Amino acid sequence: MDDIEKYTNLLSSVHKNNRWEAALMLGLAGDSKAFEPLKKSLHNDNITVLERVFIISALGWVGDSKAINILVNALSDTDYRIRVTAAKSLGWIGDPRAVGSLLKALDDIDYRVRITAAKSLGWIGDPKGVGSLLHALGDIDYRVRITAAKSLGLIGDRKAIEPLNAHLNDLDYRIRLQCEESIEGIQQGYTGIRFSTNAKNREEDVCQIASTLLGSIINYNSIKPILNQFINNHCAAGNNNKSISNQIGTNEEIKTLIEALKDKDDRLRGYAAYALGWIGDLSAVDPLINAMLADKNKNVSTFAANSLGKIGDIRSIDALINALKNKNHPARDRAALALGQIGDTRAVPDLISAFKHEEVFVQESILVALGIIGDVHAIGLLKSISLEKSERLCTQSLQSLKNIHKPGRIHPFINF
Description:
It contains 24 helices and no strands. By secondary structure, it is an all-alpha fold. Among the domains are: 100-194, Leucine-rich Repeat Variant; 242-405, Leucine-rich Repeat Variant, CATH 1.25.10.10. Helix 15 (251-260) runs antiparallel to helix 16 (266-279) and helix 16 packs parallel to helix 18.
């Protein structure tokens, strides 16, 4: 019995945990033979919302265009989690026929759906999405605006340059940085991040970062071959002889990326730091700590902090606490979020102390981190934030208080 048959049988198990695992593993297998059993299980009236989320994700990973109508219908579901997952899966499949439905999803009442729709439009890369994404630059939620700017850069249509330029004076530094990056990408023509048919049958995180790196640093011959090999090893369709749970990132790939942290080119070091976070190998922790604390380029230190959070090793806690004093606020922002991802209560006093002297955007990330860590010592600060001071901070403080009382809830921005 092969893996597909094994997990197809488990889809009808009486135990929901088995059904979740089956949907997940069928999706990661990336085999079109999984489409029909996944479709059938989705119409089972007895499954939970979370099971539907896993199945819809799996349909996206399988990448069969026959799933488009199912996913488009799911965009109208009453549960935002279903709508978010459907929008993401449409982006993974990458069929331009989904663009119209994703454009409508940009007007969804839930910001998480709008974020995901904007992201998927960037992955698909159809210029028909440009007009609506430009409109989304004015969304009330800053995360939607950031994602719209990023997707405009991925699509690469030059008519987006002037509107993006108009946002270079935005009050939010994250939007300014993303608009600047997208403009540079469009002008220099390294926007090729979109999923190809060779990159859509494996885990999204792996394919996205490999494709991002290959598209963005295509002129750097020192690392291009290893990134090509990375995609072939882990993202190529037809690698069905490999185990579904195959480890991401060979030793050679990891060593090459770690070595790239020392490269003289700022952008190459930044992308290497970013990739190491998605791979998640512990051997990258010390090199990333050094890059975060010692690299003079603000993007490198920011990406390194972000990656240390994704890896989640407690050895990086002291360094991340130290990074809360970094001169560049994006690095402080990501260091705070990384401490939240790691979740060690030792960081709480320093996060509380840093909050008092920070600008509002970093303060918000600190509140997110405190909510994820869930230590009761943060309750005093969270309760002290008044609506008069900042509606934005008040909203996040209330969410973080709820997270402390209901551990395990993850803020949707933490893995943006």
